[in-house]
Amino acid sequence: MSEFDELQAVIRRHAAGRQAEQRACEAFLNALYHALRTASGPGLPLNNVTLEFTADPDLRLRPAPAGSVHAAWLRLGLCEVLVRVRRLDGAFVGEYGAGGTFRLDSTTEDDLLVLARTLLRDVTAAYGGDAAPPSHLN
Prior knowledge:
By secondary structure, this protein is α+β, with helices and mostly antiparallel strands. 39% of the residues lie in helices and 25% in strands. Helix 2 (15-37) crosses helix 3 (109-128).
């Protein structure tokens, strides 16, 4: 078997696992979107929140290998926040904005609401000048 054929076989063999991981990360990003829409409390939806899945800017291989980061832009009214997430040891680990990070071992509604409110506070601080400048450039 040539090296090329071996590469193709490995990609085929692990396709189901990669696809399941991608679906899980996209479902997480969708759940975070819904949490952001309800972050203001019951009966107070944020109507100008949208979600747009995108290729991770750091991804250098397609299809994405297992353990890769999946990304989406969350539009929050006048700004957009890139959220990147991947599965690590059963948890969702990710980053958002200029330096926000998270790790969620469970994705209950309350866990997602806490993350959504933290994200909103961090983005507000970044635009309000209360946040430290990012330590690296994109």
